[in-house]
Write a structure and sequence with these properties.
With 135 residues, the protein is mainly alpha-helical. It is globular, with a radius of gyration of 16 Å.
Length: 135
């Protein structure tokens, strides 16, 4: 029965790469916790540091550097908003999401992720990337 379940999971898009790594899940959880515990005034410098790392890592960065950068950038992204009811618009944004958007941090984080995805050394199907991809 377990084998049948794993076979089913491998047919789903983005899941069929390999099984998720528990260490990677812990690293992603830690990155998310660090971001959530940062004071608003320190988030700007966090994103700026990621931008600097992205500039150097994309050209000559190793797969590990790109994986770390990917994990940290996704951890800082605002979570997706859920639909309130069928056919209605997205749920109202909380004050944290509004402040992130106003500061332009989400746009900057998306640009970092695009740089990572465009890099030849980034492998989306690496099991260590799956916790961030599943977010």
């Amino acid at each position: 029965q377990k084998q049948a379940w794993e076979n089913l999971l491998h047919t789903l898009p983005g899941v069929g790469c390999v099984q998720q790594d528990t260490k990677a899940a812990g690293l992603f959880q830690n990155a998310t916790s660090r971001w959530n515990n940062l004071a608003d005034e320190h988030r700007e410098s966090w994103v700026q540091e990621l931008e600097e790392r992205a500039s150097s890592a994309v050209g000559e960065g190793s797969a590990k550097e790109l994986r770390d950068l990917f994990r940290l950038a996704v951890a800082a992204m605002a979570p997706p908003r859920a639909k309130t009811k069928e056919g209605s618009s997205n749920a109202a944004m909380d004050s944290l999401t509004i402040s992130r958007l106003q500061g332009g941090l989400q746009v900057r984080l998306r640009r970092i992720l695009v740089k990572v995805f465009e890099s030849a050394n980034f492998k989306a199907c690496d099991p260590r990337n799956l916790p961030a991809i599943h977010r």
